[in-house]
């Protein structure tokens, strides 16, 4: 298969972990007879320094034309003045909007070897394997905002079409996984949530093989900690998803392990580890590249339909999580390059 992949290394450890993920993809391509073409572009702080803009036109156009985009991370103290006109995160938000990626998938598995690093009891983390699907382009983050001295508002609005398309992603995923979908809302209080719940019931008719369950977001926040192994696919709106995905990340033991995929209807998607630019360890060859490499596996699966190759990369990542070498965040002493090399060795 031929594919054109754009890489956006970004800031801090972004370039280090992205380079490791690209090395893994190149190895997969060589091994499985694929022709992946890579081109690198600027985003975030690096792009502000080079062009004055967090998402230069050349980057946006290259991403739109690509089969998929692999991103490192953006941001850092150098660009963090809250009064600055341009900020690195604007580049990421603008890119998500340009690509029309409305569903953010965050798979979470807790490896038994790492369960002891989690704040939860080890036995509670047994068999945890779920995906949170967060709506990414609607709700309170994108609604009308007002502010005067005494009062501020953030409008939370959703259309049926916006709710339906993200739920369909969730149902499709659930029908390929454990056939269980938990739709999270606050339907006892919010009108948008009542529309969400009604829409979930409608969409569920097209997926009779999937069991639909509704959960209120406050009880979901608790259940994710008390019974995390009960869940398969969890679908929710933007604000609830932002909070629940950070809570889920805390279960895994390290931010450095977790991948994400942002998917739309008209583009192969945006793939990135969930961690930030980690300025405290940038430039030291100390970053854990496994989240970026696992994001590359999601790219193989969701953008290119290469399920077997995706599974091979995920198995190699699991092998390294189990047997090491580990970077400092997992209690080891290995470098980014050593972990990358171990993943590549485990591929064969
Ligand atoms: P962070 O995720 O960059 O770092 C939090 C802690 O986790 C740090 O101690 C860091 O060293 C560690 N860590 C993160 N990723 C790691 C990895 N792969 N290997 C080993 N250790 C790792 O979050 P923080 O410190 O809140 O933010 C730093 C900068 O990153 C900020 O400018 C923030 O805005 C930006 N950020 C960007 C994101 C993105 O590009 N999607 C997401 C989150 C934050
Ligand atoms: Mg967040």
UniProtKB/TrEMBL annotation:
Classification via SMART domains: Iso_dh (SM01329)
Keyword Translocase: no
Residue positions binding NAD(+): 76-89, 276-288
Domain Isopropylmalate dehydrogenase-like: 4-343
GO terms under biological process: L-leucine biosynthetic process
Entries under Pfam families matching the protein: Iso_dh (PF00180)
Gene Ontology MF terms in the entry: 3-isopropylmalate dehydrogenase activity; magnesium ion binding; NAD binding
Record note on cofactor: Binds 1 Mg(2+) or Mn(2+) ion per subunit.
Primary location recorded for the protein, binned into one broad class: cytoplasm
Cofactor requirement: Mg(2+); Mn(2+)
UniProt pathway: Amino-acid biosynthesis; L-leucine biosynthesis; L-leucine from 3-methyl-2-oxobutanoate: step 3/4
UniProt cross-references to Gene3D superfamilies, sorted A to Z: Isopropylmalate Dehydrogenase
This enzyme's EC code(s): 1.1.1.85
Site label Important for catalysis, positions: 141, 186
Domain of life, per lineage: Bacteria
Annotated substrate binding sites: 96, 106, 134, 218
Record localization: Cytoplasm
PROSITE patterns: IDH_IMDH
Key words of the record: Amino-acid biosynthesis, Branched-chain amino acid biosynthesis, Cytoplasm, Leucine biosynthesis, Magnesium, Manganese, Metal-binding, NAD, Oxidoreductase
Gene Ontology CC: cytosol
Chain residues that bind Mg(2+): 218, 242, 246
PANTHER family reported in the protein's UniProt record: 3-ISOPROPYLMALATE DEHYDROGENASE
Entry-linked HAMAP family: LeuB_type1 (MF_01033)
Subunit structure: Homodimer.
Annotated protein name in UniProt: 3-isopropylmalate dehydrogenase
């Amino acid at each position: 298969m031929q594919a054109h992949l754009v890489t956006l290394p970004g800031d801090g450890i972004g370039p280090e972990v992205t380079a490791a993920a690209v090395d893994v993809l190149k190895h997969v391509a060589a091994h499985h007879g694929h022709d992946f073409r890579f081109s690198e572009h600027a985003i975030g702080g690096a792009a502000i320094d080079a062009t004055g803009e967090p998402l230069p036109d050349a980057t946006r156009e290259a991403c739109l034309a690509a089969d998929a985009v692999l991103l490192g991370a953006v941001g850092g103290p150098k660009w963090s003045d809250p009064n600055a006109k341009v900020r690195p995160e604007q580049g990421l938000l603008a890119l998500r909007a340009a690509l029309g990626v409305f569903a953010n998938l965050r798979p979470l598995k807790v490896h038994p070897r790492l369960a002891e690093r989690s704040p939860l009891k080890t036995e509670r983390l047994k068999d945890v394997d779920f995906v949170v699907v967060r709506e990414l382009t609607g709700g309170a983050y994108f609604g009308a905002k007002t502010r005067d001295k005494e009062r501020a508002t953030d409008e939370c609005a959703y259309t049926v079409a916006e709710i339906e398309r993200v739920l369909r992603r969730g149902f499709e995923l659930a029908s390929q996984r454990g056939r269980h979908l938990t739709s999270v809302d606050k339907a006892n209080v919010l009108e948008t949530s009542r529309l969400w719940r009604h829409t979930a019931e409608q969409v569920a008719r097209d997926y009779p093989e999937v069991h639909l369950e509704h959960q209120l977001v406050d009880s979901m926040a608790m259940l994710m900690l008390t019974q995390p192994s009960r869940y398969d696919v969890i679908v929710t709106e933007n604000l609830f998803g932002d909070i629940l995905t950070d809570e889920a990340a805390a279960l895994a033991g390290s931010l450095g392990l977790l991948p994400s995929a942002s998917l739309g209807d008209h583009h192969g998607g945006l793939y990135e580890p969930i961690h930030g630019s980690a300025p405290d360890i940038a430039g030291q060859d100390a970053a854990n590249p496994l989240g970026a490499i696992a994001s590359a596996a999601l790219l193989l699966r969701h953008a290119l339909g290469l399920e077997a190759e995706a599974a091979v990369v995920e198995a190699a990542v699991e092998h390294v999580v189990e047997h090491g070498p580990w970077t400092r965040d997992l209690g080891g002493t290995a470098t980014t390059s050593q972990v990358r090399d171990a993943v590549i060795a485990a591929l064969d």
